Amino acid sequence: MNKKNILVFSMALSIVGGATAAVYASEYAVNSTKNNVVTVTNKEGNGTNQTTKNHEVKVANGKISDEEAVKMATKALKDYMGLDAKSFGEARVNRTNAQEDFKFFMDLYSKEDAAVVKENAKKDTANVIVVQFVRAEDLNQPMAASNRIVINEKTGEIVSLTAFTNEARSSEATIADVKVKSAVINFFHKQQKNVKENTMKVSKTASSGTIRVLCNLEDGRDVTMTISLKNYSVSSYEINYDRLIPLPSEEKDYRENFRELKVN
What we know:
Residues 1-21 form the signal peptide. The protein is an alpha+beta fold and 264 residues long.
């Protein structure tokens, strides 16, 4: 199990029940740290947990409150994914650090991967806030799909985002490299980030109408993305915010299942 999948799995373990329109106290499966129960006031329209217009994020001494994290996550889903806050559902907040995942899941790594994980564990890894929005109909489903946003608590950067929609998956299997390139560049342009164009790679085949994309930002951090072939919209991305060394299993996956974009 690679680092990215482990992080998603560990967050899923923390899901608990509760009441709508609140951020819940929950016991995190790895470090058992409880989060505060807070109510997020709706400031715009009738959507749950919707942020105010032109909301400016203020990070005080590297700390972001649960309320602020939910507002940031809501704004990211609206600005980057075009989602309507009315459909988000209930917000749940957890705080974690990659070090916790290294320790908790060490036994699940292969021997080769474990050696690299030990090197990664020596790094100064960031404290992050994970915000999940769970729809009312999915509250009692521990592994239900949800919108999930990860925020670097020190910098306020949105370093990972996964959007869930009910739209039908595309049956398209042909990958248009030009559209992939445009989708990646335009997506990060919204975040005022630049992509190194010659670093883009795409999965050789589509899966359920989606493809995976790899690229590097100009600051050197690598990114993994998921793009829909229906309209070439980005449904998820994750920045390697801790600049972790890729695991051997990841490197093998990249070599065998990805190709360079055929775009000049």
